[in-house]
Amino acid sequence: MPKFYSDNATKHGFPYGEQEYETCNIRNYSCPFCAASDRDRLIALYIKKCLKSAIKDRVINILDIAPSPPLSRFIRNLNLEEHDILYRTADLFVEGVDDKVNITDMHVYKDDQFNFFICSHVLEHVVEDKKALRELYRILKPGGRGILMVPIVLGIKEIDEDPSVVDEADRWRRFGQFNHIRLYSKDGFIDRVKEAGFRLHQYGSEFFEENTFVKTGIAAQSVLYVVEK
């Protein structure tokens, strides 16, 4: 992870260190070969292990919100044999995606349009994250899966959020980054996801082959959140 983030969090008095985040390997954050972050690598592990068996449809419609370039390249190069992949990217601000979309109002997509989505480290930027979660539920087919990841600090019991905080220094201090408007607790995040209607699965190191996290530079306490409709 670029020192810009940890240095500014410390400078502005953010009370939590990198080791208190559930999924963050500060020392092996980016792959030296493809630049994939640790959470990109975790998502890729799940896709390689489970996507073909989890989605029964021959055509897998994937929506990737605010795509990470290394993970996007990985998905575009996937070969799942008997499955065809239709992959779309979406973002409200970034150029070069397929669709300019506000995650809280994705009217460009039909109900039950996708059978897989990725929404990683997006919701902490969104004022109406509950509305965004309901939209993700709406566009997911019954039986479909999605990956939802946010920064989670394990030492807090409740979500700390305040969209009215616009001063960057205050955001660094409370939420750990200048463009975040909340800090998720584990229980708070889980409750919010389930409130939207999703079934939720948590996959830690024991779900993957032995020593996989060590080999791929993923912190031992990391957890992947996979939702199902």
3D structure, described in words:
This protein has 229 residues and is α/β, with parallel strands linked by helices. It has one domain: Rossmann fold. The strands form 2 sheets. The chain has a 7-stranded mixed β-sheet, sandwiched between helices. The protein has a two-stranded antiparallel ribbon with strand order 6-7. The two termini are 33 Å apart. The mean pLDDT is 96.
Features:
single chain; 229 residues; alpha/beta; Rossmann fold; 9 strands; 30% helix
Q: Decide which structural class fits the backbone.
A: alpha/beta
How are the strands ordered across the major sheet?
3-2-1-4-5-9-8
The third-level CATH topology is: Rossmann fold
> Helical element count?
7
Task: Please give a quick description of this structure.
The protein has 229 residues and is α/β, with parallel strands linked by helices. It contains seven helices and nine strands. Helix 3 (69-76) links the parallel strand 1 and strand 2 (84-91).
Write the layout of secondary structure elements.
Layout: H1 3-11, H2 38-54, E1 59-65, H3 69-76, E2 84-91, E3 99-100, E4 114-120, H4 129-139, E5 140-149, E6 160-161, H5 168-175, E7 182-183, H6 186-195, E8 199-203, H7 212-216, E9 224-228
Parallel strand pairs: 1-2, 1-4, 2-3, 4-5
Antiparallel strand pairs: 5-9, 6-7, 8-9
